[in-house]
Design goal:
The chain is an alpha+beta fold. It folds into 4 domains: 348 residues, Peptidase S8/S53 domain (Rossmann fold, 3-Layer(aba) Sandwich), CATH 3.40.50.200; 71 residues, no CATH class; 98 residues, Immunoglobulins (Immunoglobulin-like, Sandwich); 78 residues, Immunoglobulins (Immunoglobulin-like, Sandwich), CATH 2.60.40. Helices cover 14% and strands 28% of the residues. The chain is built from 10 helices and 33 strands. A 7-stranded parallel sheet has the order 8-9-7-11-12-13-14, sandwiched between helices. Strands 18, 20, 21, 23, 24 and 25 form a 6-stranded mixed sheet that branches. Strands 28, 29, 31, 32 and 33 form a 5-stranded antiparallel sheet that branches. Helix 5 runs parallel beside helix 8 and helix 6 packs parallel to helix 7. It is globular. The N and C termini lie far apart (87 Å). Pfam families: Peptidase_S8. Belongs to the peptidase S8 family. GO terms for molecular function: serine-type endopeptidase activity. One of its GO terms (biological process) is proteolysis.
């Protein structure tokens, strides 16, 4: 391999790296009308995401070959509180509340600002990126400053904003290809060189789904929308690079990587042009976040994910990776909360430290390893507990910039095969959640390597047809209905002990969203200090709804569960937790203050006095069996009490009272 085109990623040990992993990039280009295909031998995989040399072949005379289908057989394809429970009266609207995990504050919000910017030099220009919650969605912003002191101040300022959920140095992401190209023109015989589609039984998969109605966001270097083999496949996206691109809708690709990824997913099939994608009726939403050199910022990647969600993508392809979770992690969680499946490359640094790669390692993301044409693991493909599945990623032929075709290798190439499979599933079962898509892929994967799940292949090589057979009929029988049980209201909160609470849930068909009425379910409740859950059987109403109402005398947890039967799968709701705090009543007199705590459990009661600037501790007592704690000989002032956590309630602070 030559090193003359090498793109370095030496900027910092904290810097994210684009996992193109181009180990042998071969471009098959030229006039789409057709030229004799000069077959270049598949390039060998190169570890650590390094690239390969480029060889150019001059197009020959035009010919008119026809599409060579792969065929393939279908064989081996299926390889304690008192409460009432009732079917909810009235209809329950909506699919249920989603947990906004993206809005949970990261450790960076409370970290020492100086430590966050420790790697910044005194005179170094640097971008500080923060993610804030605005209008119920994440908003990514960055500011450029110079020097460590200014960077520290910028981080501290962001931390003071109550809406901030993460803050840090805006890491640079790079495309690590070292590419080489072999140019030639062809009309249609390239399908025979797509070993990956043969391995994945593409033509058989298409008898069940081609991805119609699903949009996949390719967050990358842009996508050449005018490529003849992507005609009509590419929607208007957005360009977030800010380098005065030839277009502002993501349809320009000056690097080639994004166009290659898009072709793996959705190149038009059976059009007598070039190659075919695994999900040929999918629409591609191009989000350009990396420039012609394959370089960009983590903040732009995060913005791209948010844009993809807000523009209707159902699957997001992230052929990118870095060694730290930053702004992108919050954006990924936002996507998952909106029922968008996120697929990411496991990374190509196996021979270079094998560091954990994000966002593949983020919770809820499908992490993808790469295999070769013999189903061996690619020697560059990262290993780890975050690897969920594997897919073809060595010598992958696909579309390329300049209306060309190219062979590339890397987990960047494996990832879009998984994204395409997710799209095939979402096309036939639109209601599938990201977790259900993950389960469908993992449970039907062909086991490779050590028996069972391992850190090299995850659950194994994806099997699109077997995954589809879990959603549609493949043998004439009716498939088992996958159920979804979701909380519709009453997701939990902090309440005063003794508060009446109501929790509602709905049981639906996960694919269609249709209600499943008259189905046997259970509601499980635990109210502290009860040691265990108590489950009560009931049935759903015609609307698929079920309701529990009770008194939270202590901290109370509630969830609903549906057991599998002959026609439906098992499912459970999230757990609704009502954290109960003690009810505290203060009675002030001359020099005295009496606190009555309910429920009475002999808790510690601390008396505080307001000094005019802050609360000052006076003394602590244990309440009586009746929950009473009395304080005497007090000077005139404003007081409050803090009640320690009890066996049934969380710690709490009372309102204030004036002692004369």
């Amino acid at each position: 391999m030559t090193g003359r085109n090498r793109r370095s990623v030496r900027s910092s040990s904290r810097r994210a790296r684009f996992t193109a992993g181009v180990a042998g990039l071969t471009v098959v280009a030229g006039a789409v009308a057709g030229a004799v295909l000069v077959a270049a031998g598949p390039s060998a995989a190169v570890a650590s995401g390094s690239g390969s040399s480029v060889t150019t072949i001059t197009p020959a005379a035009a010919v008119s070959p026809t599409l060579r289908g792969a065929g393939g057989s279908v064989a081996d394809a299926a390889a304690g509180a008192s409460g009432s429970v009732a079917g909810a009266s009235g209809s329950v609207a909506g699919a249920g509340a989603s947990v906004r995990t993206w809005a949970v504050k990261a450790a960076s919000v409370s970290a020492d600002p100086a430590r966050i910017v420790a790697g910044v030099r005194a005179d170094q220009p640097v971008r500080i990126v923060s993610v804030r919650t605005i209008g119920g969605r994440p908003s990514v912003s960055s500011v450029t400053v110079t020097g460590r002191a200014s960077a520290t101040a910028a981080v501290a300022a962001a931390q003071q904003d109550a809406a901030t959920v993460s803050v840090g140095v805006d890491e640079v992401v790079h495309l690590t290809d070292d590419g080489t190209a072999t140019a030639a023109a062809t009309n249609d015989p390239l399908r025979s060189r797509q070993w990956a589609l043969t391995t994945l039984k593409a033509e058989t998969d298409w008898t069940k789904s081609t991805g119609s109605g699903v949009t996949v966001a390719v967050i990358d270097t842009g996508v050449q929308a005018s490529h003849p083999d992507l005609a009509g496949q590419v929607l208007k996206g957005i360009d977030l690079v800010g380098d005065k691109p030839a277009s502002t809708d993501g349809s320009n690709d000056e690097n080639g990587h994004g166009t290659h990824v898009a072709g793996i997913i959705a190149a038009v099939a059976n059009n007598k042009i070039g190659v075919a994608g695994l999900a040929p009726n999918v629409k591609i939403l191009p989000i350009r976040v990396l420039d012609a050199d394959g370089s960009g910022y983590d903040s732009d990647m995060a913005k791209g994910i948010i844009q993809a969600v807000d523009r209707g993508a159902k699957v997001i392809n992230l052929s990118v990776g870095g060694t730290e979770a930053g702004a992108t992690s919050s954006a990924v969680q936002y996507a998952l909360s909106k029922n968008v499946t996120v697929v990411a490359a496991a990374g190509n640094e196996r021979q270079d430290g094998n560091a954990t790669s994000y966002p593949a390692a983020d919770a809820g993301v499908i992490g993808v390893a790469a295999t070769d044409s013999t189903n061996k693991d690619a020697d560059f493909s990262n290993t780890g507990s975050y690897v969920d599945v594997a897919a073809p990623g060595v010598s992958i032929l696909s579309t390329y910039m300049g209306s060309q075709y190219a062979t590339m290798s890397g987990t960047s190439m494996a990832t879009p095969y998984v994204a395409a499979t997710a799209a095939l599933l979402k096309s036939v079962s639109p209601g599938l959640t990201p977790a259900q898509v993950t389960t469908a892929l993992e449970s039907t994967a062909t086991d490779l390597g050590a028996a069972g799940r391992d850190d090299v292949f995850g659950y194994g090589l994806i099997n699109p047809y077997a995954a589809l057979c879990g959603q549609v009929s493949c043998d004439g029988s009716s498939p088992t209905v996958a159920t979804a049980f979701r909380l519709a209201s009453g997701a939990g909160s902090t309440v005063v002990a003794g508060t009446r609470v109501t929790v509602r849930a709905t049981l639906t068909d996960a694919s269609t969203g249709e209600a499943i009425g008259g189905s046997a379910v259970s509601v499980c409740v635990r109210t502290l200090p009860a040691p265990t859950l108590r489950c009560t059987a009931t049935t759903t109403a015609a609307t698929g709804a079920v309701t529990w109402t009770g008194i939270a005398t202590g901290t109370t947890t509630v969830y609903f569960t549906h057991d599998a039967d002959a026609t439906t799968t098992a499912s459970s709701t999230a757990t609704a937790t009502y954290t109960a705090t003690a009810k505290t009543t203060l009675r002030a007199g001359k020099g005295t203050l009496t606190a009555t705590v309910t429920p009475a459990t002999r808790q510690g009661v601390t008396l505080d006095r307001w000094s005019g600037k802050t609360w000052v501790k006076v003394s602590t007592k244990t309440s009586s069996a009746a929950g009473v704690a009395s304080f005497t000989k007090l000077k005139p002032a404003t007081y409050r009490v803090r009640v320690a956590a009890g066996t049934a309630t969380a710690a709490s602070t009372s309102t204030s009272a004036r002692v004369s």
